[in-house]
Specification:
Length: 228
């Protein structure tokens, strides 16, 4: 079973697998890189790594319109329920749960998390998605941390890592992360959205291909690729 990944810029992704559409961190309306309208997106599930505005994004209106289940931290679940989204599932760091499309495991991320209104949102997380035959790691916003090696022990087919620096790890640390995670391929995110997170992605890709065992995949926002 293959998975089609579409990048909407920043950390917003769509994963289509086995007839199910997942949105991850759907920051669309205020995302200068997004070339779609939040109103046009369909979703069966919305997965949130954390609740910062550039990840929470359009979750509430998309969930209300589509009825998609929102999967996030237990604190994210509580906040969603208070804001009119009842179809939710809460998890916490280290916990895995099986859904019809596969298994969602929340893993450690070194980052903070709160809602745009200041409400506490629990831990920031990374997400390991085990689909039928493929394992994808969306690191979310995070610093480099040595326990990425343990995530790598899960055998990751595709790792999605932030490279924009300032709020997350930058290029040098992402290369170190790739050597710990040992994925087949790696996709960069959380860069060039704002002036403070500009990154030379061509240079990143050259270095990934030269200095690690992983294959770099670089696309323009709005483009898709298939993990098979
Ligand atoms: Ni953040
Ligand atoms: Mn962010």
């Amino acid at each position: 079973m293959s998975a089609r990944i579409t990048w909407y810029g920043h950390s917003a992704f769509q994963v289509d697998t086995d007839g199910v559409t997942l949105l991850i961190d759907p920051f669309i309306s205020h995302n200068p890189l997004a070339q779609v309208h939040a109103d046009d997106l369909r979703a069966d599930f919305i997965l949130l790594t954390h609740a910062h505005g550039d990840h929470l994004g359009d979750t509430v209106p998309i969930a209300k319109r589509t009825g998609a289940m929102v999967i996030g931290s237990a604190e994210v679940e509580g906040w969603m329920n208070k804001h009119g989204v009842q179809n939710t599932h809460g998890q916490n760091t280290g916990g895995a749960y099986g859904f019809p499309f596969g298994i969602v495991k929340f893993v450690k991320a070194e980052h903070s998390s709160s809602f745009p209104d200041g409400a506490y949102a629990g831990q920031a997380n990374g997400i390991v998605l085990t689909l039928k035959g493929k394992r994808l790691y969306f690191a979310g916003d995070t610093a480099l941390f040595s326990d990425m090696r343990l995530i790598g022990d899960m055998r990751i087919d595709l790792a999605v890592l932030p490279i924009g620096d300032n709020y997350t790890m930058g290029i040098d640390d992402s290369l170190h992360a790739i050597r710990l995670i040992r994925p087949q391929s790696v996709f960069p995110c959380h860069y060039n959205t704002f002036p403070v997170i500009q990154a030379d992605v061509a240079n990143w890709a050259r270095r990934v291909n030269a200095e690690t065992e992983a294959k770099a995949i670089v696309l323009d926002p709005g483009s898709s690729f298939v993990v098979e």
